[in-house]
Specification:
The complex is a heterodimer of chains A (113) and B (116). Chain A is an all-beta fold and 113 residues long. Helices cover 0% and strands 58% of the residues of chain A. In chain A, strands 2, 4, 5, 9, 10 and 11 form a 6-stranded mixed sheet that branches. A 5-stranded antiparallel sheet of chain A has the order 1-3-8-7-6, with no helix packed on it. Chain A is globular, with a radius of gyration of 13 Å. Chain B is globular, with a radius of gyration of 13 Å. Chain B has strands at residues 4-7, 10-13, 19-25, 31-38, 42-51, 54-57, 65-66, 76-78, 87-94, 106-107, 111-115. By secondary structure, chain B is mainly β. In chain B, the strands form 2 sheets. In chain B, strands 2, 4, 5, 6, 9, 10 and 11 form a 7-stranded mixed sheet that branches. The model of chain B has no long low-confidence stretch (mean pLDDT 94). Chain B is 0% helix and 49% strand. The chains are: A mainly beta (113), B mainly beta (116). Chains A and B meet through strand 4, strand 5 and strand 9 of A and strand 4, strand 5 and strand 10 of B.
């Protein structure tokens, strides 16, 4: 059964820092991996989706990489801002059970002014 | 505006009193899903539906029922709620249920349920 782990569970940084969030998964037989953002009291918003054949995806200050063979993904946030404060979740769509996503528990990010 | 709407957003109820959490999407999506989110456990899938009249169990279906009689609606039914079903519930939808990169989930704002 696929398991997704996110490290660290929480992260606090000053504004302007570049930072990396980590996601690891146990079964490398995946279709894709997605990164979501969750703001307090709100639902999840999709940030980036990387197909298993891709190495990375970029959107603005966000860059997500995927190393399928080692079961790892990273989300790089450049020049962090207080508005980036949120919980970031990664989710994997496995080859077995492709109609479902397996989520990590998230990294809670706080960017202070 | 394209969205997934859940109601109620907040509910406090008592053990055994049947309740329904509604979910509606206006994007003509085929795939819909329910998740619950608990501290320390993350998001876990309850049920999902690939299309009208097609539903299947997720990881934690016990104590829940769903139906998909119309494409836009996917209600979550708790026939006899218990305190361990106190949680934050999310409904989500996507164009399809397959692994295509186009099938990005759109989430509702969540329903916080407390069962006393």
């Amino acid at each position: 059964k696929q398991e997704v782990t996110q490290i660290p569970a929480a992260l606090s940084v000053p504004e302007g820092e570049n930072l990396v969030l980590n996601c690891s998964f146990t079964d490398s037989a995946i279709y894709n991996l997605q990164w979501f953002r969750q703001d307090p009291g709100k639902g999840l918003t999709s940030l980036l989706l990387i197909q298993s054949s891709q190495r990375e995806q970029t959107s603005g200050r966000l860059n997500a990489s995927l190393d399928k063979s080692s079961g790892r993904s990273t989300l790089y946030i450049a020049a962090s801002q207080p508005g980036d404060s949120a919980t970031y979740l990664c989710a994997v769509r496995s080859l077995s059970g492709y109609s479902t996503l397996t989520f990590g528990k998230g990294t809670m990010l706080l960017v202070s002014p | 505006e394209a969205q997934v709407t859940q109601n109620p957003r907040y509910l406090i109820t008592v053990t055994g009193k049947k309740l329904t959490v509604t979910c509606s999407q206006n994007m003509n999506h085929e795939y819909m899903s329910w998740y619950r989110q608990d501290p320390g456990l993350g998001l876990r899938q309850i049920y999902y539906s690939m299309n009208v009249e097609v539903t299947d169990k997720g990881d934690v279906p016990e104590g829940y029922k769903v139906s998909r009689k119309e494409k836009r609606n996917f209600p979550l039914i708790l026939e006899s709620p218990s305190p361990n079903q106190t949680s934050l519930y999310f409904c989500a939808s996507s164009p399809g249920g397959g692994p295509s990169g186009a099938n990005v989930l759109t989430f509702g704002a969540g329903s916080r349920l407390t069962v006393l």
